[in-house]
Design a protein that fits this description.
This protein has helices at about 55-70, 200-220, 275-305, 315-345, and strands at about 20, 30, 35-40, 50, 75-115, 120-145, 180-185, 195, 230-250, 255-260, 270-275. The chain is an alpha+beta fold.
Length: about 350
């Protein structure tokens, strides 16, 4: 796979210093050296913005120990910890337009009813009462996020047209709520691990346009067929956003684990520990036992439905079917009891 093209850092046109964007991703920035606020010339597609980390390593490890304590585990033995900047494409699309149509009018009526004991209880009934015209002006900014590299191994959700939910990760916040932002510079690699993007800008724009198209289709939700939806996309701005995540690898009770913290908000994004060996062995044994019981029950039922010539006419079909059902019920009860017992014994 070819390496993504390198991106030059933005520079101040007055003194050559590094601009520091205060209003979010974009090219309007204040120079950290001379303080001038102006528009930095360049290709907007090349903008790379960094969300600064606010959560220290010590705070992350303290929160990890507290999270494990809530699960009933002892203190973790930290094997490795690092600050990672994860790349996301952030595409902001401005939508404007008008929607005209009709929708059904639903009226709610509160009535009193009496139950069998004579107690009064309210009942809400809904009925349709004609239609009403709907005229709505649309003016909004749709933000689409696309992961620029695989993230599943870190316990982070991959974002694309199929998924925009981020869990506890705050990368969906408005840019003005992300805290101080900075323009990406190579010096960032000296203090943290920076994951290079492998998803290009054009592919990210394709994913974002699919997300916006789905939003446009949903604008007419609730209206009767025949609604007129006139939506235009007035602008499309894409920026590569590097978001800070603190990752920890540890062992607890002899088992390896991994945790990921949002280094901007401090939220715990994921916490995973390996399953105990005994529990994993028991789970596989129970799976094999369930498979064997299912095979035996299925074989008996097939024998009852299609008896061989030696058993045909002997009237044993019903007894074989009953035996199969009894075997299945007994196996289910035994497996359920074993699972409950293991659940109480497993720490």
């Amino acid at each position: 796979m070819s390496e993504p093209p390198s991106t030059p850092a933005l520079t101040c046109p007055r003194c050559g210093g590094t601009p520091d964007p205060e209003a979010g991703p974009g090219l309007l920035a204040r120079c950290a050296s001379c303080g001038v606020l102006g528009r930095i010339e360049g290709d907007p597609s090349q903008g790379r913005v960094v969300v600064r980390a606010a959560l220290s390593a010590g705070e992350a490890l303290d929160r990890l120990a507290a999270a494990l304590a809530e699960r009933g585990s002892g203190p973790p033995a930290i094997e490795r910890h690092e600050l990672v900047f994860v790349p996301y494409w952030r595409v902001e699309t401005t939508l404007a337009g008008r929607i005209e149509g009709e929708r059904r009018v639903v009226v709610e009526e509160l009535r009193q009813a009496f139950d069998e004991q004579g107690a009064r209880r309210p009942i809400v009934r809904r009925r349709e009462d004609g239609t009403e015209a709907v005229v709505r002006e649309i003016q909004e900014v749709q933000v689409a996020l696309v992961s620029a590299c695989p993230l599943e191994e870190f316990g982070l959700p991959a974002l694309d047209r199929q998924r925009q939910m981020t869990g506890e990760l705050g990368v969906r916040r408005r840019a003005d709520l992300m805290g101080p932002l900075a323009v990406f510079t190579p010096a960032l690699r000296d203090a943290a691990t920076v994951l290079d993007p492998i998803v290009g800008r054009e592919r990210a724009l394709d994913e974002a346009r699919a997300i916006v198209a789905r939003r446009e289709e949903g604008l007419a939700a609730g209206l009767l067929p025949g609604a007129v939806v006139e939506i235009e996309r007035l602008g499309e701005e894409a920026a590569l956003l590097f978001y800070p995540v603190r990752l920890s690898w540890f062992r607890v009770a002899g088992r390896p684990g991994q945790a990921a913290f949002d280094a901007s908000t401090g939220a715990l994004v994921s916490l995973r520990t390996a399953e105990p060996f005994a529990a994993a062995l028991h789970r596989r044994a129970l799976g094999l036992a369930a498979l064997a019981a299912g095979f035996a029950v299925g074989s008996l039922l097939r024998l009852a439905a299609l008896p061989p010539p030696i058993l045909a006419g002997a009237g044993l079909e019903a007894r074989i079917a009953l035996a199969a059902l009894a075997l299945g019920a007994g196996a289910w009860w035994l497996l359920a009891r074993t699972v409950r017992q293991l659940a109480t014994e497993t720490p």
